[in-house]
Amino acid sequence: MAQKKTQEELQIEKQIGQQVKIRRKMANLTQEGLAEKAKVSTATISRMETGRQMVSVARLVEIAGAMNSQVGPLFVDFDCKIKSEQKEVDIQLEALLKKCSAEQKRYILDYVQFYLTHPMAN
């Protein structure tokens, strides 16, 4: 009979799943697209991203490879106080900024600086 997972194990699996979701989106892949590339079912990707299923490390390496990623970034710092939602926002911003021209980045920087220094504009 399989042992019941601890809360810590469940949390780790959920965080890995969240990282898979973040990396999948960064790779512009749907769950179906990732499943096809990694040769797993769409249900497996869905359950993994929501923390309801964990795959073997070998399968995780294949999934990371299908996203053109290393497996290491999927293993987040589990003791980190930064919430995964903030990490997702940071990663998405980084990915979007990489697509911007220098002029667009300057505009965004000016806008954010204005927004932060003018509370009434918020």
Structure characterization notes:
The chain has about 120 residues and is an all-alpha fold. Helix content is about 65%, strand content about 0%. The chain is built from six helices and no strands. The protein has helices spanning about 5-25, 30-40, 40-50, 55-65, 85-100, 100-115. Helix 1 (about 5-25) runs parallel beside helix 5 and helix 2 (about 30-40) crosses helix 4 (about 55-65). The longest helix has 20 residues, at about 5-25. About 15% of the residues are buried.
Q: For the report, how would you describe the main beta sheet? A: none
Q: Could you tell me the strand content as a percent range?
A: under 5%
List segments where confidence is low: pLDDT < 50 over at least 5 consecutive residues. none
Write down how many β-strands occur, each being a DSSP E stretch of 2 or more residues: 0
What is the helix/strand order?
HHHHHH
Would you tell me the overall average pLDDT?
86
Rg of Cα set: 18 Å
Tell me the span between the first and last alpha carbons: 56 Å
Which of globular, elongated, flat, extended, rod-shaped describes the shape? elongated
What is the helix fraction of residues, given as a range? 55-70%
